[in-house]
Amino acid sequence: MMRVLIADDDTSLLEQLRETLASERYTVDTASNGIEAMDKLYDAVFDLVILDVMMPHIDGLSLLEQMRKGGINIPVLMLTAKGD
C-alpha cells in the first residue's frame, strides 16, 4: 500500500485530501507545518509527499530543499493557493 505524507496549514484542505486519498486505499499521514512534516519524514518511509508552498515555520520549498540535502529523494507534489 502506498504511504503519503500531506503537509498543509489549511486544516480543511488537509482533511479533504486525507479523506480522498484514504478512500482510495492510500495510507495517509498529515502535518500542519513544515517542522512537523520534517519530523515525520525522518520517522517513517513515504512513497509520496504533498507540500503546501506557504506553511508556518518552514515553507514547502525550504522543506523540499532540506529533504534533498538530507538524501530524501521521494516524489513531491507542491500545492499553492497563490494566484498568478
Give a topology summary.
Elements: E1 3-7, H1 11-23, E2 27-31, H2 34-43, E3 48-52, H3 60-69, E4 76-79
Parallel strand pairs: 1-2, 1-3, 3-4
Organism: Acetomicrobium hydrogeniformans
Keywords: DNA-binding, Phosphoprotein, Transcription, Transcription regulation, Two-component regulatory system
InterPro entries: CheY-like_superfamily (IPR011006), Sig_transdc_resp-reg_receiver (IPR001789), WalR-like (IPR039420)
Number of helices: 3
Write out the CATH superfamily name.
Response regulator
The biggest beta sheet, please?
4 strands, parallel
Termini separation: 36 Å
| Spatial strand sequence of the major β-sheet | 2-1-3-4
Mass-distribution shape: globular
CATH topology: Rossmann fold
Protein name: Response regulator
InterPro entries: CheY-like_superfamily (IPR011006), Sig_transdc_resp-reg_receiver (IPR001789), WalR-like (IPR039420)
Keywords: DNA-binding, Phosphoprotein, Transcription, Transcription regulation, Two-component regulatory system
Domain Response regulatory: 3-84
Question: Overview of this structure, please?
Answer:
- By secondary structure, the chain is of the alpha/beta class.
- The protein has one domain (3-79): Rossmann fold, CATH 3.40.50.2300.
- It contains three helices and four strands.
- Strands 2-1-3-4 form a four-stranded parallel sheet, sandwiched between helices.
- Helix 1 (11-23) links the parallel strand 1 and strand 2.
- The longest helix has 13 residues, at 11-23.
- It is globular and about 35 Å long.
- The protein starts with a strand and ends in a 5-residue tail after the last strand.
- One of its GO terms (molecular function) is phosphorelay response regulator activity.
- Keywords: DNA-binding, Phosphoprotein, Transcription, Transcription regulation, Two-component regulatory system.
- It comes from Acetomicrobium hydrogeniformans.
- One of its GO terms (cellular component) is protein-DNA complex.
- InterPro entries: CheY-like_superfamily, Sig_transdc_resp-reg_receiver, WalR-like.
